[in-house]
Each structure stands twice: as structure tokens, then as C-alpha cells.
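Worked Example 4.2. Read the sequence first, then its C-alpha cells.
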Amino acid sequence: MAEVIVGGVRIAYRRRGSGAPLVLFHGAFEDSRIWSDELERLSPHVEVIAWDAPGCGESDDVPPAWSEADWADAASGFITSLNLESPAVAGFSLGSMLALLLARQHPAAVGGLVLVGAYAGWGGSLEGDALAQRIAAVRFTIDHPVEEWADDLLDSVYAPDAAPERRALARRLLDDWRPATTAALLSVMVQDLRPGLPRIGAPTVLVRGSADARSPRAASLEMRDLIPRARLVEIAGAGHDCSGPQLDAVLIAAAREASGS
């Protein structure tokens, strides 16, 4: 692990490989360790940088009353601190929202986007009862032991035939998650980010598993239509987490396109 200080907040990260840079934003209830296989597989082809978002992993806690602008500033400052020039940025689930905030607030910081299991914020992707149920489920995690909700969460993220070792890693990461981070992130997750999507100029690839039980296909289609330079890639049989060779190919191509290589 290495670290940088951004706005007084220590942000830890993992960095492997060389060449076109690719910055990875993990999802909720995770940290950069979830990208361990990607770091191994992608580093012979591109330079891979996976952060621990503020409040996650080895990074500092989230400062009180952080706003969506603060999250965007932290992401932009992280990229600047590493002397990266408009790299490709890939975000999974929650990470897709943070990547969208970054692209909206700091467009020059992003050379390309890969949004995996993406949301235009929950408010822009879930409707009515589904939105209320998602908020209630996440609030439940703040006040209850991980053993009471871990299996239900993981069942919704991973397809039945997903690699058991990847699900096992995700389960271990749940033990290290900080409930205070969930509370700090809720104000970001419930946003409706759709109004800002037409202003995103970076080439964008939306990636979703065809068996994704958390992010609706309709939301991905709407995001594809609202972001000017977006396309959608669907991975047959994959769940919300759709790690594997097809996603690897998209990530490598995005990094090389953003760097002009």
C-alpha cells in the first residue's frame, strides 16, 4: 500500500504495472483489495491504481458533513497527486456514482469512464418501493451486526455460479467496513445524477451483468442514452459483480484509448 494526502485526508492505494493508467473505484462495503485479481491480470497490459476511498480500507475516516462536491474533489485530488493526466476511471456500483461525480465536477481529470453495475445515483436508477427498500436495507447495515445481513447482500451482488473465492473475499471485507462510512455515503447514493449526464464528455462504457439483481437494466439503458459518448456492454450470466475476461478487455481498451496508445 502507498498513500497520498488530499485535502488533509490520507488516501491509501495499490499500484501495479506500467503504461496507460487505469484508476479503479471500488463499491460499497469494499476497499481496494476487491481488485486484487484485476491488479494481477491487468498490470502486464496497463498501469492499474486502485484506491481505498475515504472511510474505507487503510484510508482516513470521512470528515464530518462531507458533500458530493467533497467526494468529487477527493477523487480529483487523488488523481492529481499521482501526476496522472486524464486517465481512464472505472467505478463499480458505488464507485460508478463517485466516478460520475468526478466527471461532472472535474471533467479534465477524466479521459474515459467505465461504469460497472452502474447507477445514476439510486434516485436516478431506482423507483418508488425499490428506492425505499434499498435505503432501508442500507440503513439496517449501520445498526446491525454484519452477520445479520452479509448473506443477503452477497446473494444480490454475486450470481450463483460466481467464483467462490471472490465472494469469500467480499465477505471478509465486510468485517472491515465502517458503518460511519455508510452513513456518510447515503447522501451521495440517494442522489439523482441524471441531470448532469448530458454534460459528461468522456467516452463511457457501461458494463452490466445480464443477471444483475441490484442495478436495473432500464437504468443502464437510460444512462447510455443520456451520456453523449456512451455504449453498453452486457456480460451474459454475470451478476452485479461481473469481474472476468470480458470486463478486463473493456478496462484495458478504455485505458489505452484515454492515453492515446
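Now turn to a second chain, presented in exactly the same format:
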Amino acid sequence: MTALPGLPEHLRTLIVDGHKLHPRSQQMRLGPSEIGNPCARRLAYGLIEAPKAGGFDDPLPSIVGTGMHAQLEELAERANTRLGWPRYLTERRVEIRPGLTGSCDLYDVQEAAVWDWKGPSTNRLRHYRDHGPSAVYRTQAHLYGRGYRRAGFPVKQVGIAFLPRGGWLKDARAWTEPYDDTVVDTALDRIDRILVQLLDLDAEAHPERIRDGWTAGGHQIMPPIPADTTDCFFCSYKALPGTDLAAAPYACPGAGIPAPSNVSEVSASELLNA
């Protein structure tokens, strides 16, 4: 059997260029899905709305996820029609605090619960089943809970529904826990500390200081904002191989893991579970 060739370039261009025009792809401001990221440097770049450095940019996972969310929103509206009342509020924009907003996937009025849809690979679903959600996902759920509370809704529970991207509904898993103000306050306090560091570094005028620190006269005045290498491979600020960092103030060398323009030789799920 002859192996199938890759996509024709015009089809790949159709996907990549079209995705760049999607409003979510053009969003620069830091959102609830990123606040819990363990890498302070990545958050710092997001807070100053830094241009992407050219790291991971394969749009397909995002395209699949966007399609899944749109379908689930429609199914929730059908459920409301069938029930005869709006039990489920979908894709409502909530404000966690001034300047920090996000679109929450689902709020269950009957249960006073916030839900977030996730479509992980089979490997990642197995990990979440055994270990629970990442700190990023858990923080995101509680941030949406805060947003709904600020909008005047009771929030007793936050939850994440894991729907396998390549599996069956019977394999789906759910994680829930009581809403906790402490989770939100801890995450927002961390963001505020990073904002102070950015001001001290004068990072708007000198973005390279986020990565390199502030040195003058051979003395380090301030250290760089620390990086966590957990998700370097998928970071949009990860420098591409051969990048001249002196000419790219927003690029981060990360953990020395090459940042691809797409993932072709190995799936993202295999890398995450290596």
C-alpha cells in the first residue's frame, strides 16, 4: 500500500491563514485559560501583549476545539428548549475583575455550577482520569466561578467535562469541586506580583529584560522573570531554532527544546506523555 502524501500546500494555507483571522487567534490580552500557567515569564509576555515569537502555531487543535464548543453550545440550547426553561447559560462573557474577562462555556442554573468543556487526546484523558486536571484548568474553572458570582449568580461547584477528542462518549470523565475563593485570590495575587516586576523592569520599553534581566555597568540590577519549562514545546513565545535573541526581544530560549512551526513527526499527546 502506498503511503498517503501530505496535504497540498494550498489546503494547508487555507487552514493556517483562515485560522489567523479568527477573533480568538487575534486575541492578545491574557485570559482565564492562561492565568494558572506555571511559567511566570509566559504570563509576563501575555500581560504586556507581546507579539508571538513564532513558536508552536499548528492551528488544528484549536480549530477542532472551537468546532466542538460551537456544537455543544447548540446542544445546550436544544436542551433548554426541550426543558422549557433556560437551565443552561452558554458562552456568557464574565468579568473576573476589571480588565480580566472570559467566555465561560456553561453555567447550570439548577445546580449553580460552572462547567468548562475540554477535548483532550486519549492519552491526556487517561492522565486526567488518574490525576485530575492541571493547575491551569483548575484555576480557569474557579476564575469563571468568580466571574459568575460577580455577575450575581450563585456558584456552588466548578467542573470540567473531559470529552475524548478521539474516543467515545462512554469514555468521557468529569471533575468537580466546590468553588473556592482562595484559588482565585492566589492566582490573581501572582499576576499582580508579575505586574509589579514588569513595572520595575520597565518592560514595555525594554521587553528583553523579561528574559535577560536588567544589567547596567556590568551589574545585575534585577533578575529576569523566571521561566517554567513544563510547556515550552507549545509556547508561542518560544524562540525558533536559529533565532538571534539580541534581535528578538520577545523571544524566549525556553528549555532548549526546538519550537516547531507545526507538529508533524510526533503527536502532541505523545510528547506530553513522554
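Notes for the reader: The longest strand covers residues 88-97. The chain has a mean pLDDT of 86.
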